[in-house]
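Budget justification, computational time. The allocation requested in the original proposal was used primarily to generate structure tokens for proteins on the priority list. As evidence of use, we reproduce two of the resulting records. The first is shown immediately below.
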Amino acid sequence: MSQNALSFDELFQAARHSAVHLEMRDQYAVGDEADDFNTWLATGRRDVDPASEYWAPWTDMISRAVARGVVVRRARIVSEPVTDYIRYEHAGTVVNVAAGEQVRWLPRRRAVDLMLPGADLWLFDGTQVLFNHFTGDGNWADPDMELRTEPVIVKQCSEAFDAVWDRAIPHDQYEIH
């Protein structure tokens, strides 16, 4: 993002009605979760304490947004059988839900006829799209985010998210395959 663009935290704090997140990768390798992921791989245990040092910044931000009336939704498109990373995400999603996020999962085979954006994204209040860019191995690309406000792009992303959301399975009903 340019120096004049708002940061992710600022965009989230400015949201008044909605913040939706579309995730479409089967593997992420972002550094801030590497230790937790490696622990989970080795032990099968996942940090699911919303107040832990790992989760608290996220759960606090989500809880504050929900308290001010922001609906926070996250949709994940996943290949089946799922990757270890998706198993890890699924194991931690109870924390997202406890913080106030609504989370749904869409098997990729059920998304083949949907027109989807080329990158993961956050959509704030139906007016701003923040695209998340990753490298092929799942780490943050440089630059890692791109803010777009053109009405046609916002509309396309909003429609894509809504189509995914309508087909996706609520977290408490989605069984890992």
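The second record produced under the same allocation is shown here.
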Amino acid sequence: MKDLLVPYYEHPAVRPAEWDALVAAAPRLYGVVLNPASGPGERPDPGFAAVAGRLRAAGVRVLGYVDTAYGRRPLADVLGELDRHRDWFGTDGVFLDQAAAAEGESGYYRRLATAVRGLGRGTLVLNHGTAPHPSYARVADVLVTFEGTWATYRRKPPPPWKGTDVRLCHLVHAAPADADAAALAGERGAALHCAVPGTGDHPWGTLPNGLAPAPGTR
């Protein structure tokens, strides 16, 4: 079952074994978010281009990361970064981070979605990190309706989704090794999930529990 959407923000030259583990986990992966430098960076990076090619060859969506600053970034800047992701790394989808959740900003994301689909950029994921207005279900293929710690996820689940049919995803960090995020996500209506042990400001520098290579592997 392809139920994992994995943001992994480490360079392949620094964490080669972890990228190998991701490629090996291809049968479970809905997609992997590629984020060389809080976006595509200023120039092509051969290391990221190589792992993106390996993932695509294994049948995994590669989603280019772009920050939308809750709808405040100019559309041209966002689309320019998506172009670089596609041209440099061959991405076949987009992961728009810091997506607004209120109905008033949905027009910005509708315009982005029209441009993304018109240029054939594939799967569109919006990371709201919380449950957005139901109108966003008509914008994206996947909505991230929770991003936070395992403690919060257990204690305060996202509100039930009241929009139309769309894939939901829950991203959880600070998750203990025995956390059954897949079961909780399924109970809460999310077809996709990712739970990592990472904490602090950079939790997405760790792989999902169960995928990480053995210590010392290179």
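A brief technical remark on that second record: The domain at 4-195 is CATH 3.20.20.80 (TIM Barrel).
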